[in-house]
Amino acid sequence: MTTPTAYDVVVIGAGIVGSAIARELSGHQLSVALIEARNDVGDGTSKANTAILHTGFDAKPGTLESELVHRGYHLLSDYAEHTGIPVEHTGAILVAWDQEQLDALPDLKAKAEANGYQHCQIIDAAAVYADIPHLGPGALGGLTVPDESIICTWTVNLALATDAVNRGTVLLTDHRVDGVDIGPDTTTLHTTRGDVVGRWIVNAAGLGADLIDALFGYQRFTVTPRRGELIVYDKLARTLVNKIVLPVPTSRGKGVLVSPTIYGNVMLGPTSEDLHDRTATGTTEAGFDFLLSKGRALMPRLLDEEVTATYSGLRAAIDHGDYLIQADHAQHYLLVGGIRSTGLTAGMAVAEYVRDQLAEAGLVVTPKAALPDPPRMPNLGEAYPRPYQLPEAIETDPAYGRIVCFCERVTEGEIRDACHSVIPPTAVEGLRRRTRVMNGRCQAFFCGAEVQALFERETCQESRR
Ligand SMILES: Cc1cc2nc3c(=O)[nH]c(=O)nc-3n(C[C@H](O)[C@H](O)[C@H](O)COP(=O)(O)OP(=O)(O)OC[C@H]3O[C@@H](n4cnc5c(N)ncnc54)[C@H](O)[C@@H]3O)c2cc1C
Q1: 135 Cα–ligand 1 center, Å
Q2: CB within 6 Å of ligand 1 — which residues?
Q3: Domains, the chain, with CATH or none
Q4: Cα diameter, the chain
Q5: Helices (H) and strands (E) in the chain, counts
Q6: Are 354 and 334 in contact (CB under 8 A)?
Q7: Which tens digit of pLDDT belongs to each residue from 249-293?
Q8: What pTM, to 2 d.p., does this model score?
């Protein structure tokens, strides 16, 4: 039996938060492993959210979450420009539907300012309807949030993980941590694929973070999976709404919104339901009915449009009002817990914070002299050119002119590229997130068989059907 290499840092969980941490740390003179229970990166909460790049205007001032969402917004906006992660700065309007909500708007504006966001304006009902003409009747006024934006959560996760690997991180998928042995100098993580040893362990396991925490002897928090179901409407609905339409937030979260998506659809959701089952990512009839009732009031015209898909994600809600990021100096262990409903935005700032916490705890964190350029990601955004629209690309490589998925206009060239990328998909599901293939109106009825065949050809995999 060979002794596993001891990494300087092992990060558990290859969602947005863990991938951002691995990327940040491997920009320094450290050996880093990123280990993930599933067979792909970004297959947990990070793949199924509302995909809004938050300004943090409505966070609780003074919290770590407020600080890191604010910082993360700027870091991710900048990173998106360098990597080609699609973002649309649509802006949002928070709509007041009754007098109580209208009266709450000045406090929300003040809160935004306390969170470092100075651009909110209170507007009257006429201005709300001028911006969102298809809004349902009864709006009394609103608060504008001009910098709230939509983004591709899949590309964020993949870009961060790819960057981490390019910088030297060793990515180990299919490695579920189920035990630990804490030694004087190193910790051995027992996983479903053998042991992984690290001098420092960072727990970014999302919904599983409290279970890993317990392996280190803690009982400081419990994760409650808080399900959010969403409905995605057809692209023909996209003309109905150009901005994110937000409700007045409550203590349970941000509420049900209507938003354009980066892929050219319109989204309604999410619900908010506390569960026990950490795997319950199915959608329900009750959730659907609830969203339809909300949608009917928010934007009745939307309900005339076709539904393309429904999905749900699980927020890692915890019994603690803020992010829980704490280093245990003695055990060389750092917890990143409770990154509930803002982790897509805050991930890169969480990574910086983790780096500083580790440095404070004594880890020598010296930047590498040179780093590879950030990866240039394939564009999945509807607002930017895609290969089928680029005659020069098609001329150089005719595979970009051969559309395989007609609903989403995905070409053979993009599928091939994804299969040969730094982190290739291990199943067709992963190909969806890398290309948009099979995500459209027909939900793979037309292209499913061809996509499967292409995937098998490009990855030399046996059919899993
Ligand atoms: C409905 C909904 C809407 C949201 N909307 C937004 C939004 O608009 N904007 C925003 O900024 N945020 C939003 N969020 C929050 C955001 O999606 C999350 O905060 C973020 O994705 C969390 O990333 P993560 O890396 O912590 O978790 P995850 O993506 O879940 O990653 C954790 C990883 O750890 C792995 N793991 C778990 N246990 C183990 C183990 N024992 N061994 C190895 N690996 C393990 C999991 O498989 C998983 O891949 C939303 C969330 C939901 C559910």
Answers
A1: 31
A2: 12-18, 35-38, 43-46, 49-52, 54, 176-177, 204-208, 212, 228, 270, 313-315, 339, 341-345
A3: 1-88+148-222+319-380 (3.50.50.60), 89-147+224-315 (3.30.9.10), 387-459 (no CATH)
A4: 73
A5: 12, 22
A6: yes
A7: 776 667 899 999 999 999 999 999 999 999 999 999 999 999 999
A8: 0.97
